[in-house]
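Table S2 (continued). Query chain:
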Amino acid sequence: MNKTIHANMRVLYKENGQWKIGTLQAGDALIDEKGLFLPIVDKESYVDFNDIFFDAIPVEDWHKKYSEYFMTKKEYIEYIQSDEFDKQIENAYVSDGEYAYYRVNKFNETWLMKQPFEYIVRYD
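Corresponding output:
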């Protein structure tokens, strides 16, 4: 993690084994014998620090203008099945359309379709 954690930061948090989008709430953190917990606005409760993903990257407007950089999961699946695709140099992230979250690390339809977000953002 290379970002400063701050209030209003966009994050993912795990709830019942699924990633959910949230925003860190200003206020006091909670620490007890179980660990460190941070308040999440969208959840209106505390989430274990270890169940929070902090490295969201805002998707810039220019990404959305170029179909080779911003695409749906289905379009990305077509791309990875094409002759143009080279997994050795691929740099893509799962996205909700506003933020890019974690890196695509499995280039197959099964893995991609299990991801909770609808878009893929590619970077050079």
